[in-house]
Amino acid sequence: MNTKKTKELLVFVLFILPALALVLFASDVPFVMNMYYSVFNWNGISRDMTFVGLDNFVKIFTNDSFFWISVKFTLKYALFFVIIVNIAALTIAMFLASERRSNSIARAFYYVPYIISMTAISLLWKFILGPGFSSLYQITGWEIFNWSWLGSGKLAFIVIVVMTTWQNIGYYIMNYITGIIAVPTELLEASRIDGASRIQTATKIMLPLIMPSISVCMLTSLTFSFKIFDVIMVFTKGGPGNSTASVAYNIYSEAFLNNNYGLATAKSVIFVIFVLCVTAIQTKITKGKEVEA
Amino acid sequence: MKLGKQKISIAWVVVLLASILWLLPLLLIFNNSFKPYNDMMQNFLALPKSLSLDKYIETWVDFGFPRLIVNTLSYTLAAVSGILLFAPMAAYKLARTKTTLSKICFILIIMPMMVPFQSYMISLTRLVSNVRLTGTRLGYIIVSTGLMVPLAVYMIHGFVKNIPIELEESAEIDGAGPVRMYFYIILPLLKPVLTTVMVIDALSNWNDIIVNQLIVGGKTAAMNLQHALYARFSAQTSDWEHALPGIVMSMIPCLIFFIVMQRNIVSGVTAGAVKG
Questions:
Q1: Which distant-in-sequence residues (6+ apart) come within 8 Å of B160 by Cβ?
Q2: Residues A41 and A56 sit within 8 Å (Cβ to Cβ)
Q3: ipTM greater than 0.90, yes or no?
Q4: Which structural domain, as residue segments, surrounds residue A175?
Q5: A50 forms bridges with which residues in the sheet?
Q6: Which residues of chain B neighbour A25 with C-beta distances below 8 Å?
Q7: What is the number of domains present in chain A?
Q8: Does some domain include residue A212?
Q9: Are residues A108 and A189 in the same domain?
Q10: Which positions 244-263 of B are in contact with A (Cβ < 8 Å)?
C-alpha cells in the first residue's frame, strides 16, 4: 500500500513539476520578490539595501506627483476605452451576427488589427500621423492634418484611445457575436410580433439576454485599460512630458530609468491590490444584472 | 439583427464599409512600402509608380532578416512545444488528483492569471539576471513559456474535467500504466483544446516585444523580429523606405497564419476571455 502511494506521488510530481517550475520562475517567485523589495530602499544594482518599512508607501501617497498623474491618465483612459470599445463593438456585432458571407468577411477585417504585433502597429501609426498626415495636409490644406498629434498631451491621448480601439475592437465584436448567437431566435420574433420596434427589441429583449457577454467584455476591457503598458512603452514612452504615462509605465520607468527599485515595487504592490479590487467589484455588479432566457 | 434573414439597411452597409476602413492603415502601409520617400511625402494615398522590390531586398539583407526570422521562429517553436508538452500533463494530473497538494499546485499555477504581468515584470528581470540568463536565448524561451503556462493549464484543466473518467478506469484494468494512459488515451482526446492553446500562444509569441525587451535587452543576437525592427526604426523615424517593407515582412507570416487558422483563432481567442 505504502509503495503504491509513493509511486502515485512520484507520478504526480513527474507530471506537474515542469509546468510548476516554469510558472514559479516566470511569475510566482518574481511576484513574491516584488512584495519583499517593496519595504526596502534599493537602487536595484548596489549591494546595500536598507530596510525602510512602509516608507516607500508613505512616499507614494504623500510625495509622488508623477505617480498620481499616471493614475489620472490610466483612469481617464479606462473610462474612454471601456465605453467606446464596448458600445462600438456591441453595435457592430448586432449587425454582423447573422451568418452571411459578407458578414464573416467584415468580421475578419475588423479582427485583423488584433493579431498584429505592437511594433507594426506603433510604427504604422507613427507613419500615418507623420509623413501621411503631412502629405494629406499638402493636398487638402485641412488644418486637422497639420496638428502635432503626438506633440501635445491632449491629442496624444486621443490617438492612444483611437489606436487601441482600432486594434482591439475585433476581439470584443467576436465576443459579443458569440453572445448574440446564443440568444434564442423565437424570443426576438415573439417580441416583434407583439409589436416591439427594432430598437425596443434590441434594448429590452436582446440586451438583458446578452448580459453575460457584456460583463465579460466590460471586465476584459477594464483590466486591459488598467494594465495598459505595451502601447505606451512602444508608442509614446509616456510623452509628451508625462502626459501619457500609465501606471504600469510609471512603475517601469521608476525601476529602470530612475533606478528607484524599492519604490517601484511598492507602487506595483498598490497596483495589484487596486486591479484586484476593481475586478472583484466589477464582477459582482455585472453578475447581479444577468437574466436567464 | 434578426438572425438568418437580414434586411439590408443603410446602417448594415455602413458597418460593412467601415470594416474596409479598418484595413485601411494596413493597406496604406503596403501601398507606401513600394515608394521612394519623396513619393510617400507627395501623396501617400497614390498608388506606387512601380512595384519594385528593391527596398524589400535591401531591408531583408541589411537588417539581417534571415537571422531574425530564424530566431523568432525557433523561439515560437520552442515555447509552443514546451507548452504543448508540459501544460496538458500538469492540467490532466491536477484535474484527476483530489488532494490538498494538488489544489495548492493548481492555485500556484493559475495565480498569474489574476495578477497583472506588469506588476511583477521588474522583479522578473531581476530574477533572470540573478541566475545569469539575461540576454540569452534560453532565458527568453524559459520566461516566455512560463508566462503562457497558466492560461494553457487553466483551459486544458477545464476540458479534462469533461472527459468521462470511465475511459481511464477501463484502461487501467487493461493494465495501462499512468504514462501510457496519458499519452495513448488522454492526449489524443485533448486535441481541440490543444489546437486553441497552440494558436493563442504561437500568435502571442511571434508578436511579443515586451518580454523580449525585458529579458534580452540590447543583446542584438538574441532579439526577435519585432524587437529588432522596433529597436532599429523607432529611433530613426525618417528611414520609412526601409521601415515599411520591414513592417510588411514582419506581418506576412502572421496574416498567413490568420487566414489558414481563422476559425481556430477567433474561437480560441474568445475562449481565452476568462483570463482576467
A1: B91, B92, B95, B96, B186, B190
A2: yes
A3: no
A4: 72-262+270-288
A5: A41
A6: 127, 142-143, 146
A7: 2
A8: yes
A9: yes
A10: 244, 247, 250-251, 254-255, 257-258, 262
- Boundaries of every domain in chain B: 62-268
- List the CATH number of the domain containing A279: 1.10.3720.10
Residue that finishes a domain, picked among A43, A63, A83: A63
Give me the torsion for CA of B222, B225, B227, B229, rounded to 10°: 120
Cβ proximity of A16 and B93 under 8 Å: yes
Reading the block at residue A267, the C-alpha cell is 507602487
Say which residue the cell 506627483 belongs to. A65
Q: What is the rounded distance in angstroms from the CA atom of residue A271 to the CA atom of residue B92?
A: 33
A112: enclosing H helix or E strand: none
Instruction: For B62-268, give the CATH class.
Output: mainly alpha
Q: Do A228 and A245 reside in the same domain of the chain?
A: yes
Residues A185 and A242 in one domain: yes
Same domain, A36 and A171: no
Burial of B265 (0-12, 13-18, 19+ CB in 10 A): buried
Distance from CA of B174 to the nearest CA of A (A): 18
pLDDT tens-digit profile, chain A (293 residues)? 578 888 888 989 999 999 999 999 999 999 999 889 888 888 777 777 888 888 888 888 888 888 999 999 999 999 999 999 999 999 999 888 888 888 888 988 999 999 899 888 988 898 888 888 888 888 888 888 888 888 888 899 999 999 999 999 999 998 898 888 888 888 888 888 888 887 888 888 888 888 888 888 888 898 889 989 988 988 888 878 888 999 999 999 988 888 888 889 999 999 999 888 888 887 777 666 666 55
- In Å, the largest CA–CA distance within chain B is 77
| Shortest distance, CA A36 to any CA of chain B (angstroms) | 10
Contacts of the segment A6-13: beta carbons below 8 A, 24+ positions apart: A11/B93, A11/B178, A11/B179, A12/B93, A12/B97, A12/B101, A12/B102
